[in-house]
Amino acid sequence: MKVTSTAVGTALAVASALTLTGCGSDSDADKGAKGGTHTVQTANGPVKVPDDPKRVVVLDTAELDSAITLGVKPVGATTAQPGKPFLDYLPEDKVKGVKNVGVIAQPNMEKIVSLKPDLILTNKERGASRYDELSKIAPTVMTKTTGYPWKENFQVHAAALGKKAEAKKVLADYAAHTKKVTKALGGRKKAAGIEAGVIRFQEGADTRIYGEKAYIATILKDVGLSRPPVAAQAKDYGGLAMDVSPEQVDKGDADVVFYTSYGDPKKSGEAKSVKSPLWKNMRAVKADRAFHVKDELWIQGIGYTAADKILDELEADLTK
């Protein structure tokens, strides 16, 4: 493989910046954080972080949601897709001024270094191979994965950010909100009688029927909704979902179906599918209980800020 002079120059620039940044407490980033340090238990073992980090970089959507939820504006963050801004469910004023440091799983190391962070939040699923490099820039807190264990991951993020007290209020507010939605649905028993399915059409990939190990599944359960039998059968990606062809989309049928598209609906298969007899014969569709939702919020966004908005939409849709 031919290595260009540009690639060599980039690699040398990053290496030089990492050398200057160092990995000890004498770095500029560490000096910028006031106060002492505390230790956080992470997927890579204990990591010492500043008590009051001032320059935080987050490298995934869950980490960004956690920071915003806890009142922390990162200095840098990755985006979910190339050429796209931060997920649009996030309050504009909360992400204004946050520097784009590349795409999830492909962060621009030079940009990260230039921001002189004193804390980096990410997860092993996206960035395990970069841990050593990242930890030389700043203390790096990784969770094992993203998605389904979002509540546990949020606690790790809160510990790293020094926001445990704020996290307790977030949890209390979420519990109150889910209780409100359950009450609006007629109570726990009535909610349990409703099977809720989630279908995602995807540009360049098969259609997904979401299973029990999905972020959105936890919110549906917290409200008290049931899942269709297919959810338990969705074993792809560790129980996240089941991939099906467009001709099998009716496998995702339920009393209520929430559906979305990753990418252009015309290219994802959604536009064609929702016009097909297969779709129109689904019981959720016949009952006018199939609701189109935003992919950035329901699937890509992972955290309590996203959950708060999803709960509002759930209540609005299911109480029509």
Q: What do these coordinates show?
A:
It is built from 19 helices and 13 strands. With 320 residues, it is an alpha/beta fold. The strands form 3 sheets. It has a 6-stranded mixed β-sheet with strand order 6-5-4-3-7-8. It has helices at residues 5-21, 28-32, 61-69, 92-95, 109-114, 124-127, 131-137, 150-161, 164-184, 188-192, 215-223, 229-233, 236-239, 265-268, 270-273, 277-280, 283-286, 295-300, 304-318; strands spanning 37-42, 45-50, 56-58, 76-79, 99-103, 106-107, 119-123, 140-143, 196-202, 207-210, 241-244, 256-262, 290-292. Helix 3 (61-69) crosses helix 8 (150-161) and helix 9 (164-184) packs parallel to helix 19 (304-318).
Strand proportion, as a percent range, falls in: 15-25%
- The span between the termini is 59 Å
- Percent range of helical residues: 40-55%
Major β-sheet strand ordering: 6-5-4-3-7-8
Structural class, please?
alpha/beta
How do the strands and helices of this protein lay out in sequence?
Elements: H1 5-21, H2 28-32, E1 37-42, E2 45-50, E3 56-58, H3 61-69, E4 76-79, H4 92-95, E5 99-103, E6 106-107, H5 109-114, E7 119-123, H6 124-127, H7 131-137, E8 140-143, H8 150-161, H9 164-184, H10 188-192, E9 196-202, E10 207-210, H11 215-223, H12 229-233, H13 236-239, E11 241-244, E12 256-262, H14 265-268, H15 270-273, H16 277-280, H17 283-286, E13 290-292, H18 295-300, H19 304-318
Helix pairs in contact: 3-8, 9-19
